[in-house]
């Protein structure tokens, strides 16, 4: 029994704590010295049991077994006492904390919001360097040093140890770690962040400033400032600081006028060339990989039709069905079958020939909508309103787009207009930190239109090039959503009749046919004039993009094939058509 307990404790990395009590117990039996020299183990158990009532350590040792089995209650009443009195209780809670902590790590990916908040608080104790002690208060530290008295606290921490080994060193920072990683990705464009950091640095009351420190500070500080929406934002974008902080050539701002946003801001092409090339897979490779499910299913079905069969009415009908089932839409399906029939009717046709013709026809459908996003910088700022159903990738797309713009030397301000979800607000703040873009946010449930108006004013004051406004997308309450979006558009128009200058809708490719309706709805509600197709990676329904293009004929500016900051690329009709058709 006792051994079992000790082992458990060891596993938590608290040998010291346990061993001590064990030794203490052994000490009393020292009276038997000579005799017991050989049987230390056997004695201990005896000693443990005897002193049970008196010596607390002995009790806890036995309880560990009872832990899993509350069966112990049957054991001598003595046992139950020690539990409540001592740590045995905490030992059991240990498993409890495990579930508690797990939820944290899990939400981490989805709701990094929690993480940023923690760091946000830490910065306060930022003087941490001076007070490493307060940090222990966080719990993680105690487990390492403290022994018995802290066991209860340690217990909850122990569950973490498993994943916690890293946290042991810098638990909180670990959570923030992901941010530095992102920052690292953004680093490729070293010159850009510099000026931006300069801005943020200027915002800091204390003027702390090294790049690395700055990053950490911003990660925590930014959110807080964003919360102080009313005054904060303006402070965030001191045009002076921004320009001063742009010592690097890359930081040069594009002249007023129209710029094209593709892989980078077009007007910055010369400077962008200096940026280090990404070592990752080529865009087309990633696109092919992302659409592999769509193309494989399609290719498999096509191959099934044309194996040892001539092209006739039946095969054409079968092909049409396959294309429609692949979400390409009736119009495109007919285009493909017509084109195929025109040149190959009555002949043997290989599936590869069919897919090649399909790629050509799909490209024809997509070509008209594969347009680059153009920003009119004569507007200060050019306002981009991002709409779409919840979860379609609005916030993520805003972050990716902000990264492109800031890397291109443009100053960007973000507005957390989805005031219905705290997570959405926090998520945008994180993107703001990553892209060094000020975020205007307000309390949960605040009037989104009021926030948009406020953000527009602040962006004007700050001289921002672009203002990107996030919005809620609660289609489940269509009337309310419609009223809110209409109000946002109306309010923005008071400051600039032409605003919002771009209304982007994010469309989740995994949605399938319902995406067609979503575009219809948001187009009518918010005047959508451009699309971003997200989550094309890993879906078998990528063909829906073709159906949307054929039906709505709205520009598709970008497509998303992942959650990373660089997983947003300008839409290429040719690349997409080849990728989904599975031809080189
Ligand atoms: N695989 C993949 N995931 C994506 C892509 N774009 C966004 N996501 C993920 O989709 C989820 C929802 O994205 P959000 O940006 O929060 O979507 P949203 O529309 O802002 O959602 P709400 O905040 O609820 O309105 C997140 O987990 C994103 O990481 C993409 O292109 N590919």
From TrEMBL:
Residues 212-232 have a biased composition (Polar residues). It comes from Aminobacter niigataensis. Residues 71-98, 122-146, 158-169 have a biased composition (Pro residues). Part of the signal recognition particle protein translocation system, which is composed of SRP and FtsY. SRP is a ribonucleoprotein composed of Ffh and a 4.5S RNA molecule. The keyword Nucleotide-binding applies. It comes from the Bacteria. Its main location: membrane. NCBIfam families: ftsY (TIGR00064). This is Signal recognition particle receptor FtsY. The gene is ftsY. Residues 51-61, 177-197 have a biased composition (Low complexity).
């Amino acid at each position: 029994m006792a051994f079992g307990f000790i082992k458990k404790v060891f596993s938590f990395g608290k040998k010291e704590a346990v061993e001590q009590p064990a030794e203490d117990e052994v000490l009393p039996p020292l009276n038997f010295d000579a005799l017991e020299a050989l049987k230390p183990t056997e004695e201990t158990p005896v000693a443990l049991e005897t002193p049970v009532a008196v010596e607390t350590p002995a009790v806890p040792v036995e309880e560990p077994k009872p832990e899993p089995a509350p069966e112990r209650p049957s054991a001598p009443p003595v046992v139950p006492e020690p539990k409540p009195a001592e740590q045995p209780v905490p030992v059991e809670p240990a498993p409890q904390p495990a579930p508690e902590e797990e939820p944290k790590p899990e939400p981490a990916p989805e709701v990094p919001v929690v993480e940023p908040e923690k760091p946000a608080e830490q910065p306060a104790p930022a003087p941490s360097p001076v007070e490493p002690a307060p940090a222990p208060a966080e719990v993680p530290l105690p487990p390492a040093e403290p022994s018995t008295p802290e066991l209860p606290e340690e217990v909850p921490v122990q569950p973490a140890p498993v994943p916690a080994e890293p946290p042991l060193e810098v638990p909180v920072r670990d959570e923030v770690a992901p941010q530095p990683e992102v920052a690292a990705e953004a680093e490729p464009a070293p010159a850009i962040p510099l000026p931006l950091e300069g801005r943020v640095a200027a915002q800091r009351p204390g003027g702390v400033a090294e790049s690395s420190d700055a990053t950490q500070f911003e990660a925590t500080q930014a959110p807080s400032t964003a919360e102080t929406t009313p005054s904060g934002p303006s402070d965030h974008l001191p045009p002076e600081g921004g320009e001063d902080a742009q010592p690097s050539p890359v930081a040069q701002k594009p002249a007023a006028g129209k710029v094209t946003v593709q892989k980078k801001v077009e007007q910055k092409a010369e400077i962008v060339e200096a940026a280090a090339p990404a070592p990752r897979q080529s865009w087309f490779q990633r696109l092919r990989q992302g659409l592999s499910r769509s193309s494989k299913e399609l290719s498999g079905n096509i191959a099934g039709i044309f194996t040892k069969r001539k092209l006739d009415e039946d095969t054409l009908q079968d092909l049409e069905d396959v294309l429609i089932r692949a979400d390409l839409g009736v119009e495109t399906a007919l285009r493909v079958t017509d084109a195929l029939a025109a040149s190959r009717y009555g002949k043997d046709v290989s599936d590869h020939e069919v897919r090649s013709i399909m790629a050509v026809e799909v490209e024809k459908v997509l070509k008209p909508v594969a347009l680059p996003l153009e920003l009119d910088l004569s507007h200060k700022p050019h306002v981009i309103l991002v709409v779409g159903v919840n979860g379609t990738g609005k916030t993520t797309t805003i972050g990716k787009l902000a990264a492109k713009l800031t890397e291109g030397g443009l100053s960007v301000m973000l507005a957390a207009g989805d005031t219905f979800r705290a997570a959405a607000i926090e998520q945008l703040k994180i993107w703001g930190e990553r892209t060094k873009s000020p975020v205007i946010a307000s309390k949960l449930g605040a009037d989104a239109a009021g926030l948009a108006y406020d953000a527009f004013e602040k962006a004007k004051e700050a001289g921002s090039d672009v203002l990107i406004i996030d919005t809620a997308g609660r289609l489940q309450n269509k009337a309310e959503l419609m009223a809110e979006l209409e109000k946002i558009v109306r309010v923005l128009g008071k400051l600039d009749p032409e605003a919002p200058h771009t209304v982007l809708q994010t469309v989740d490719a995994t949605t399938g046919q319902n995406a067609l309706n979503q575009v219809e709805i948001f187009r009518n509600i918010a005047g959508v004039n451009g699309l971003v197709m997200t989550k094309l990676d890993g879906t078998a329904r990528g063909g829906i993009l073709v159906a949307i293009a054929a039906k709505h004929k709205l520009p598709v500016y970008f497509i998303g094939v992942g959650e990373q900051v660089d997983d947003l690329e300008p839409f290429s009709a040719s690349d997409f058509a080849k990728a989904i058709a599975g031809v080189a």
